[in-house]
Amino acid sequence: MKEIDNRLVQIVPSERQLNHQKLQFYSFVHFTLNTFTDKEWGDGTEEPAIFNPEKLDAKQWVDSIKAAGMKGLILTCKHHDGFCLWPSNYTEHTVAASPYKEGKGDIVKEVSKACSDAGIAFGVYLSPWDRNNKSYGQGKEYDDFFIHQLEELLTNYGEVFTVWFDGACGEGPNGKKQIYDWDRYYEVIRRLQPGACISVCGPDVRWCGNEAGDTRASEWSVVPMRTRDTEKIAENSQQQDDDCFRERNISAHDADLGSREILDKEKELIWYPAEVNTSIRPGWFYHEYEDDKVKPLSKLIHIYNNSVGGNATFLLNIPPTKEGLFHENDVKRLHEIGAYLKQAYGKNLMDLAELKADSFMPGFDIENVRTDDYDTYFRTNDGVTDCMIHLMWREKVEVNHLVLKENIRLSQRIEKFEVQSLIDGNYNTIYEGTVVGHKKIIPLENISTSEIIIRILDARVAPTLSFLGVY
Q1: How far apart are CA 22 and CA 108, in angstroms?
Q2: Cβ 471 vs Cβ 349: under 8 Å
Q3: Does residue 17 carry a pLDDT above 50?
Q4: 130 pLDDT tier (thresholds 50, 70, 90)
Q5: What is the structure's pLDDT at 15?
Q6: Is 60 exceeded by the pLDDT of residue 239?
């Protein structure tokens, strides 16, 4: 497997992908005319006159997501109904035609400013399917319109960390579907916001494949080039009012995208990390009847551990009410998430541990894993693809989580590992895993021990670790 291993580790993240993955946990905010019609998908015939979120407070949104430990916010600047939350110069179907602030409001500006003030990254969602625009389905005429709106969002609202596209596509007024000119869209984004990742229907971040928060046991970042086009197929992308689609799990046939065996015969490979997205409620837009259906803390933490802690990122949607506020039940849950994360990962027991490794390259010894950055890291000597790392404490410690991070600047290398713990005088295997990648969170359920051994059993080439955390 040496030839394929050497080929795989040549695939590394771009700087924009690396920065995106460091965000780990960020929010979606779905808000449009659907909020006022009590629908999930609008058809473009809704009147802007119904849109009047009189208490809209972007600072409340940002403060709430920040309390949860999130580092970014993506706003649905325009959903499929074609209604723009900014006063676009290219359509009258915008907030300027609504009663909100007597037609002088710009919600994109309010949210981007609130994010900037709080140190939160700002991202935009712009639906490629505009059910209000009469040029939809007319080819270049519609693409010109869409490009103009992209340019408005990417030049007037500061730095953008992501442009989030889905592949929703339907028939226009002429009965034709629009063939999206994706390459043209990408060129505009790269030119105007070179640091922004293009997500889902784009080359930088891929969708995990469902809206339930379900994740793969082994989430690889090096995958076939062909996976880049999966979500551009309408039936593979989001579906209207389809609860089965929304809550589906990852099926067996797409559970492995990046093992050696899968990639061996692939001609073109890319670095294409996964994003896990779900809503804090059953729907993506606010519905009063869902006020008592906010996902429980245990479910959200489970998704967090398996996404952020499974070499992916976690995009959690919070929908504002008709008043323009996050509902108190959602806000309460967000604060609970933040409190849990601070309690669970607030104290690193590595500070008290003695460390040893049976193999390392000079200058890259195991002590480097105490700092969480890519400038200092552990790695074995060339040609050594397995090693044992020993953590020891003078007295027993109570351990709930173990965190491992590879130096993904050097690609994703670890293929297989196990964790052992000294319990009642015996070394017991307490976890077996495959992928580490950007971050692996291992739940250990309050183990009392004075020794933990991490055995890297197999790697593509000399394995690396940039950080170890014991909590």
Answers
A1: 24
A2: yes
A3: yes
A4: very high
A5: 98
A6: no
Specify the amino acid at residue 228: R
Alpha-carbon span 228 to 175, nearest angstrom: 28
Give the pLDDT confidence score for residue 215 in this predicted structure: 81
Percentage of the chain with pLDDT > 90? 84
Considering only CA atoms, give the Rg of the chain: 23
Three-state helix/strand/coil letters over the chain? CHHHHHHHCCCCCCHHHHHHHHHCEEEEECCCCHHHHCCCCCCCCCCHHHCCCCCCCHHHHHHHHHHCCCCEEEEEEECCCCCECCCCCCCCCEHHHCCHHHHCCCHHHHHHHHHHHHCCEEEEEECCCCCCCCCCCCCHHHHHHHHHHHHHHHHCCCCCCEEEECCCCCECCCCCECCCCHHHHHHHHHHHCCCCEEEECCCCEEECCCCCCCCCCCCCCEEEHHHHHHHHCHHHCCCCCCHHHHCCCCCHHHCCCCCHHHHCCCCCEEECCEEEEEECCCCCCCCHHHCCCCCCHHHHHHHHHHHCCECEEEEEECCCCCCCCCCHHHHHHHHHHHHHHHHHHCCCHHHHCEEEECCCCCCCCHHHHHCCCCCCCEECCCCCCCEEEEEEEEEEEEEEEEEEECCHHHCCCEEEEEEEEEECCEEEEEEEECCCCCCEEEEEEEEEEEEEEEEEEEECCCCEECEEEEC
Chain centroid to CA 172: how far? Answer: 31
| Residue 120: both structure tokens together | 């939160």
At residue 1, the pLDDT reads: 60
Rounded Cα gap, residues 412 and 260, in angstroms = 12
If you count them, how many residues does the chain have? 471
- Are 422 and 368 in contact by the 8 Å Cβ rule? The answer is no
Q: Which residues contact 290 (CB under 8 A, 6 or more apart)?
A: 281, 282, 283
CA–chain centroid gap for 339, Å, is 21
Tens of pLDDT along 172-198? 777 788 999 999 999 999 999 999 999
Residue 81, token pair as written in the block = 């109904």
**In terms of Cα–Cα distance, which of 168, 182, 179, 202 is closest to 42?**
168
End-to-end Cα spacing for the chain: 36
pTM over 0.85: yes
**Residues 6 or more apart from 212 whose CB is under 8 A from it?**
246, 247, 248, 249, 278
Query: Which residue type does 427 have?
Result: Y
